[in-house]
Amino acid sequence: MTNFGRVRALLFDLDGTLVDAETQTDEAVEAIVARHGIEGFTLPATETHGRTWTHVADVIRARTGIGEPADLLAAELLAYWNAATIEAKPLPGAAAALRAAAARKLKLGVVSSSPRAVIDRFLAKLGAEDLVEHRARIGGDDVRNGKPDPEGFLMAVRALEVDPGEALVFEDSRAGLLAARAAGMRSMFVTCCADDIAGNAALATASFTHYGTLPPSFWDQLVSGTLELDGVSFT
Predict the structure, then answer these.
(1) Going along the chain, which residue ranges are E strands?
(2) Taking the complete model, does pTM exceed 0.85, yes or no?
(3) Is 15 a catalytic residue?
């Protein structure tokens, strides 16, 4: 049984949690597989959202018979996705949420299945590069095992010097929510870019549509330990 303490650290996923960049993932899969001669190929969100590009490449190879090595296929997917997400927009209120949390001395981390360079790029886009220490930016290229394995989240709390029970995870994917659970952490499921909302909400401590739907008192109550999260939906 996890011993939850007062929240001292917030760990954010990136794609679909801080930045609306999940649809471009599906676009990249279809486009790159088409380059290899297979039109109209798609994957379920459980195999793409919250997953590393290496995982996606492995699944594509297994389902299509494409013979290109997984590392090269993953590089193709990432290059396409990087170009497609140049104009990706932050989720409503995401930048303000990061600033509000930092102002209240909460420690911040970003744990993404995307590479560390992508985290850096989007934090700059959010104007938040000074809010998240480099050691607390954990990319898919920093871990041996991607989500739903808890490795990335556990690396982040070690970097921030807090216990897992003192961290609150913000996630939009099933893989990410399962990773948070496995790490012994509470989680907030952001639904505005997510799929299978009912199923994924059941994996989370609480849910919310986007940061603009959180009440004005959210951050102060979180810090004071007076905020009830279990089963709450902020819409």
Answers:
(1) 9-12, 107-111, 137-138, 167-171, 186-190, 206-208, 233-234
(2) yes
(3) yes
